[in-house]
Amino acid sequence: MSLVNIDAAEVPVREARLGSITGFEGTAGELVRCARAGSLKDSTRSFSQCMGCSSINAFCQLSMIQDAIVINHAPVGCAGDFFTFNFVYRVGQMERKLPPVIGRYFNTNIEEQDTIFGATKKLEQTIRAAYDRVRPNAIFITTSCASGIIGDDVEGVASDLSTELGIPVVACFCEGFKSKIWTTGFDSAYHSIVRKIVKPPRKKSNKVNIVNFWGSHVFDELLKRLGYEANYIIPFSTIAQLVYISEAAATIQICPTLGTYIGAALEQVYGVPEIKSPPAYGVAGTDIWMRELGRVLGREQEIELIINEEHKRVLPQLDEYREKLRGKTAYLTAGAAHGHALIAVLRELGLEVQGAAIFHHDPIYDNGDTASDALAHSVNTYGDVSNYNVCSKQAYELVNILNKVRPDIMIARHGGMTLWGAKLGIPTLLIGDEQFGFGYQGVLNYAERIVETLDNKEFVTNLAKHSTMPYTKWWLEQNPFSFLRGDVDDKVY
Ligand code: SF4
User: Fold this and answer.
1) Per-residue pLDDT tens for 47-64?
2) Distance CA 406, CA 133 (A)
3) Looking at 132-177, which runs of residues are DSSP E strands?
4) For residue 174, which atom of ligand 1 is closest to its CA?
């Protein structure tokens, strides 16, 4: 179990802190058993097609704080993600009826000569220029491979400029080369917030922190009924809102892959209890999660009433969907904890899950509590899942497996993965809203979309007829895990 240390400038990467991995093939049950026995080892690929970067994940959380700016201390190429999040930010503003503003993101443009002479002066100039232009309430500096390798004193600059400008100027260490697990960047962003923005509580509030991306706010009604108020963090928060998240009555994780660090940090440093049950996906999982929420908030009786009402409402509809989906098979690709949650949803609907390509695996979360293990919950509640692959988004493995298992439907959480199902003529469902599948209603939401997708196969059938694959017949005939096991020499290519 990692203990949060807010005196340290950096949070250790997930490999070191949690023992997280990016390579595994086997069954979900085997993975859970290895993780529990402390015998989980990363398998290394002799060929890797792609990799994510922690800096992007840090940016995805910091870039949508309404009154902060982000300075990416990096070569300009590292700022390629600005466009994506500016787009998400604008769409989210419209949905929340916020004033339309573009994201305030800056890059220091580290160049070759800076790697010799250092780039701290450039960083200082950028901070001053950006401050004069925007007058933000906080400035976050995200680091890069280049700034990390040349050893720029970013923490020192942040500290000096904080004093000079009179606002928090906060270093967020998220160099891509340090971790193969890009979700480490979430931890870096949260560490910088807990360290330099959040203040000790003055009193307890009736707010409940919801650690989320930018989904559909499904917690408002439930928490209101329990006498609490949802506080969605971090995207679309203001700095003032973040200062006293330490006063909240509890922290809810929409996905512990996202919020493992901030949930544990708020509990360990400020005593805000984290709801440690796996997130509420599937009816069985939602029952457990609701009872844990009721216990932490002191609302056990009210929760039992809600569970009763919801069972009466949802279970008959669920039976109808199960009948429609009887005998159907699914394959899933998603980030870690969200993928585990979706396995529960699919199994709840009676689909046979033929396998999953999940981007990494955390054997434990920062709270150190095995009760938070959503994959163990899925396996224990619904049975094992074969063809379970921890794949760090390696599309070549995914395509090979999909071509062999040929499920009735592929479920994806990330846009870049859906085309592979479609190219093979497999109906593919992408749900970007991380809150869409949450709770009792979430099972019905997924059921409806899956039935719709299965009823509309014409598009992918035609697409497959006119598509070409970049992968050769040779590769499609190999074992999908050949490069993970070292069976195939990469010189074959
Ligand atoms: S920080 Fe490193 S890994 Fe990330 S985008 Fe820049 S160069 Fe690539």
Assistant:
1) 888 888 999 999 999 999
2) 54
3) 138-142, 169-172
4) 1
